[in-house]
Specification:
Elements: H1 9-24, H2 44-65, E1 72-76, H3 82-89, E2 93-98, H4 101-109, E3 116-118, E4 131-137, H5 148-157, E5 159-170, H6 183-192, E6 196-203, H7 207-219, H8 239-269, E7 277-283
Parallel strand pairs: 1-2, 1-4, 2-3, 4-5
Antiparallel strand pairs: 5-7, 6-7
Helix pairs in contact: 1-4, 7-8
Length: about 280
């Protein structure tokens, strides 16, 4: 899905294997293709709610671009094609590019009809000024900091003058293959590549749910595993770990929906950089 490049090359190889494994473990019951691109270890209901939140933010960002129907759109790190399918519903001419071939196979299996191209974010296989809009939904956050300028620079290269770039990226958090930046750092990075900020907003505050996850992480025995929201606790073979997982997700079945409802209020009173993600709209 997301192109990852760093030093040494063995890390890059393991990262590519990671995304390929996620695609290989795709569950056909997940007809939205959420698991491989959101939280692989999370229940389907959780990923559906995450997707709902992202889609709400995406529509808000799309409205800020003023891109007309029929415009040429590129979705970078398209994964299983969920944004491509929506672009088509909105009347855009979309193309998806992804570094992992098995992700594109899943996208095609899920009836994604847009053209799919294999390629990395830092080396996009398209000519200059090809698209009216480029979207990057939680892609560059998976690319090491040293390579992020090259990836964003490539996205700006393929945008036509006056076209837009939508970035939805982590502004806080930690975990393997996660390289977040502060809102100011994301804006500065894009500006260095020739982008002008149209506007940005915070996305996913979910205070109660974040508090519970923090407590669960604090109480969990140290095992060196991921500290991502969807990875605590991991699926395990033991009966105790299975019970722990059920309790964990049972509690989040309450804290997460409540947090979503509360976000409608929280986003009006909290600073935008207190959110977990930032959604940025730039114009070339």
């Amino acid at each position: 899905m997301k192109s990852v490049d760093t030093q040494p090359n063995s890390y890059n190889h393991s990262a590519n294997d990671y995304w390929a494994d996620l695609a290989g473990n795709f569950d056909s019951a997940d007809n939205g293709g959420f698991g491989p691109v959101l939280h692989p270890n999370a229940p389907l209901w959780f990923n559906r709610l995450i997707d709902m939140l992202q889609f709400r933010a995406f529509r808000r960002a799309l409205a800020m671009t003023n891109i007309p129907q029929g415009a040429a759109v590129l979705d970078v790190g398209c994964g299983t094609g969920r944004w491509l399918r929506r672009y088509e519903e909105f009347g855009f001419r979309a193309i998806g590019v992804d570094a992992t071939v098995s992700m594109l196979r899943v996208a095609r299996a899920l009836k994604t009809t847009a053209p799919l191209v294999t390629g990395e974010a830092r080396r996009l296989p398209f000519p200059d000024a090809r698209f009216d809009l480029v979207s990057d939904i939680t892609v560059v956050q998976h690319i090491t900091a040293s390579m992020q300028p090259q990836a964003v620079g490539e996205m700006m290269r393929v945008i036509r003058p006056g076209g837009c770039l939508i970035l939805m990226e982590l502004i806080r958090g930690e975990g393997p293959l996660l390289f977040p930046k502060t809102p100011r750092e994301w804006i500065t990075l894009a500006a260095s590549c020739g982008a002008r900020l149209v506007g940005w907003f915070g996305q996913e505050y979910r205070l109660l749910d974040r508090l519970f996850v923090h407590i669960a992480l604090t109480l969990r025995p140290k095992s060196g595993s991921s500290r991502q929201a969807g990875a605590v606790p991991q699926k395990g073979a033991s009966e105790s770990s299975t019970l722990t997982r059920r309790i964990y997700w049972g509690i989040r079945r309450v804290t997460f929906p409540v947090s979503i409802w509360a976000d409608l209020i929280v986003e009006r009173i909290c600073a935008e950089d207190f959110a977990t993600h930032g959604v940025f709209v730039f114009r070339k």
